[in-house]
């Protein structure tokens, strides 16, 4: 299974490009820190992201200056390395004969492949979560303080990679104390205290540093809440309250299928029913219940925020970690209900069909790629006109030139990253995302040497500038590019 995972990820790596979610922005931040080491001294440079992922990306960008490629090396390594602790974790949660089926599902998972070949943080985060939970279960069985500390270290690293861990680990500690209460938990209280203390160490340092420099210890939380609230408000305005709620459920459901495969989503539902009170049959083990709690706590909170408050917009990649953690339980339940051979065939077929359908829907029949469908796919690719604009800027822009690209569903970040424009010189990231009333005023205020606007919907800037726009400027599809003299 490890060889299959390596072949799929290494084979698709040259075809994939940073496009969705946070991938291009994370790469721009890491590149910015390499260009200006002083930027790393300000926690605000990390925007809403945990600091570990972009920090670990920096050596790869230093070795290979082509950031669209080198920013993805860390994810590729983490996306393959995770299979070693994942198999150990799977054997702790279910009989060893079911571990290969769980690993197969992860190996062919479209969304985990996407995380492994782009600069998003999910591949690294999943690796750290699996390492943490596998060592925590070992510690709860053995009671060894050193193992609790090692599990806490992995938890702490995970917590400064993605903030989902800040939801997860307090709940995990409480759940562990409850689930192991009948196993002489008194002898493990010290271990859980050690785990919690070590897990909290790096987040506490991050909060303290943020408070000292920015005078706002939770500035990143404000970024995250604001971004998702704005996205959710836009969706609600377009779909209505009921439509937005139904859409939330649909995204989560498809994302779990894209992570786990349809047969193992059904298997997970069968397994989780065994954890309900007063259910007949073999109950879940304490280890399985603990991992299920760790898997489901963040998405349960996000789904509640999305459905009840309409203040959260889910992205498909948010299902990668919970879906992967549930795979060992799902594999056992599915293979017990059907046969292991049938499950293997169904898992592979599900992954192939799911990938083919979302790619065809995303890449055909539209002027631009449908990002909503492509975000479920194993690889993401730039729109042809975006790539052409980025290639031109990369070839003709001087190192000190500022570039202003119309923020077209965040295409400005994608194009700037692909064109090699550092974040401080990307006007929409460093200065403003809004134009002035006229072309001349916009260029004067921003100091942009290059201005790219989109002359068709959903672009809105070109009509404002059309009267002053020169007639002989280059065009790339619907992108118009102006070089200020």
What does this structure look like?
This protein has 485 residues and is mostly helical. 66% of the residues lie in helices and 3% in strands. The protein is built from 23 helices and 4 strands. It has a 4-stranded mixed beta sheet with strand order 1-2-4-3. Helix 6 (83-93) runs antiparallel to helix 7. It is globular.
Considering the chains and any ligands shown, give keywords for the structure:
four-stranded mixed beta sheet; about 5% strand; mainly alpha; single chain; about 475 residues
Question: How are the SSEs placed, and which strands pair?
Answer:
Blueprint: H1 2-12, H2 23-35, H3 51-63, H4 67-70, H5 73-81, H6 83-93, H7 99-107, H8 110-117, H9 122-142, H10 145-159, H11 164-179, H12 189-214, H13 219-260, H14 262-273, H15 286-309, H16 320-337, H17 340-363, H18 371-374, H19 384-396, E1 403-405, H20 411-419, H21 427-430, H22 439-446, E2 450-454, H23 462-465, E3 475-476, E4 479-483
Parallel strand pairs: 1-2
Antiparallel strand pairs: 2-4, 3-4
């Amino acid at each position: 299974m490890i060889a299959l995972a390596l072949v799929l990820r290494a084979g698709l790596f040259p075809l994939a490009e940073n496009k969705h979610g946070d991938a291009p922005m994370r790469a721009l931040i890491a590149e910015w820190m390499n260009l200006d080491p002083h930027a790393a001294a300000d926690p605000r440079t990390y925007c809403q992201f945990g600091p570990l992922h972009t920090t670990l990306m920096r050596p790869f960008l230093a070795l290979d200056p082509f950031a669209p490629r080198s920013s993805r090396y860390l994810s590729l390594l983490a996306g393959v390395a995770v299979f070693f602790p994942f198999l150990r974790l799977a054997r702790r949660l279910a009989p060893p004969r079911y571990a290969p089926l769980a690993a197969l599902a992860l190996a062919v998972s479209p969304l985990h492949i996407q995380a492994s070949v782009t600069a998003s943080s999910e591949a690294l985060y999943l690796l750290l979560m699996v390492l943490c939970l596998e060592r925590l279960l070992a510690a709860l069985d053995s009671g060894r303080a050193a193992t609790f500390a090692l599990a806490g270290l992995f938890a702490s690293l995970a917590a400064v990679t993605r903030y989902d861990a800040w939801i997860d680990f307090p709940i995990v500690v409480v759940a562990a104390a409850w689930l192991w209460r009948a196993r002489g938990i008194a002898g493990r209280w010290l271990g859980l205290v050690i785990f919690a203390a070590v897990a909290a160490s790096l987040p506490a340092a991050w909060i303290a540093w943020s408070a000292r420099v920015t005078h706002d210890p939770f500035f990143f939380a404000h970024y995250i809440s604001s971004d998702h609230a704005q996205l959710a408000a836009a969706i609600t305005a377009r779909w209505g309250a009921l439509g937005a709620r139904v859409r939330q459920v649909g995204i989560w459901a498809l994302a779990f299928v894209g992570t786990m495969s349809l047969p193992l989503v059904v298997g997970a539902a069968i397994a989780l029913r065994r954890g309900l009170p007063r259910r007949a049959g073999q109950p879940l083990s304490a280890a399985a219940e603990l991992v299920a709690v760790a898997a489901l706590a963040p998405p349960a909170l996000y789904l509640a925020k999305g459905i009840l408050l309409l203040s959260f917009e889910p992205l498909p990649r948010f299902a990668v970690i919970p879906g992967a953690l549930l795979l060992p339980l799902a594999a056992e339940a599915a293979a017990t209900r059907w046969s292991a051979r049938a499950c293997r065939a169904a898992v592979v077929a599900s992954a192939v069909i799911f990938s083919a359908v979302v790619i065809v829907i995303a890449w055909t029949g539209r002027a631009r790629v449908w990002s909503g469908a492509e975000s479920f796919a194993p690889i993401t690719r730039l729109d042809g006109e975006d790539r052409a604009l980025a290639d031109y800027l990369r070839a003709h822009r001087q190192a000190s030139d500022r570039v202003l690209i119309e923020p077209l569903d965040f295409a400005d970040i994608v194009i700037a990253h692909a064109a090699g424009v550092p974040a401080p010189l990307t006007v929409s990231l460093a200065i403003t995302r809004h134009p002035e009333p006229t072309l001349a005023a916009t260029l004067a205020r921003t100091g942009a040497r290059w201005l790219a606007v989109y002359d068709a919907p959903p672009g809105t800037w070109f009509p404002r500038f059309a009267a002053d726009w020169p007639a002989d400027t280059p065009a790339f599809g619907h992108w118009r590019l102006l070089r200020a003299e």
